[in-house]
Design goal:
single chain
């Protein structure tokens, strides 16, 4: 194989990796019973191993924090956007995401909060404002305005943690 062909294949492979990373998202919230984040990619099939590899790699991050509120008249979602421009793995930014998440929840009328969550993309240049509707639609599959559902999901996660610790 010629050197130029190998170089072109290498560039194409890197472009594909970058496209997979830029289109992969991770989401989790208090309304979700699973202990770990859900992963998706609208363009590419992604395996659990691929998703974990991306999380373990040092990336920059686009973050959207979502709080679902019900004031008795309207059900709304409030959003807060952040970026992390330093290259860090997901485990390196866990505390930072938790801080952003709970700070934003704390700024809301807690009597109206039904649930909350986060939506991440491992590339800080992604404009998550363009994906807000899609993210809210994905969260809506988990009944984010149903307080009883959120309470049950929280209890399930706590039981799973207790079982794992035993």
């Amino acid at each position: 194989m010629k050197k130029s062909t190998r170089a072109r294949q290498g560039r194409n492979t890197q472009r594909l990796r970058d496209d997979i990373r830029r289109n992969t998202f991770y989401m989790h919230g208090t309304m979700m019973a699973s202990a770990g984040a859900e992963v998706g990619n609208p363009k590419h099939t992604i395996t659990k191993a691929d998703a974990v590899a991306i999380l373990n790699r040092r990336n920059t991050w686009a973050i959207m924090i979502v709080v679902f509120l019900d004031n008795g008249l309207d059900q709304i979602a409030k959003l807060d956007h952040h970026t992390i421009t330093e290259h860090k793995s997901r485990s390196d930014i866990n505390a930072q995401i938790d801080q952003l998440h709970w700070d934003f929840v704390g700024k809301q009328n807690l009597n109206h909060v039904c649930s909350s969550g986060f939506f991440l993309v491992p590339d800080h240049t992604i404009d998550l404002q363009q994906s807000e509707r899609d993210a809210i639609r994905l969260f809506s599959l988990h009944k984010p305005w149903d307080r009883d559902h959120t309470e049950a999901a929280t209890m399930i996660r706590q039981l799973e943690r207790m079982t794992e610790a035993a």
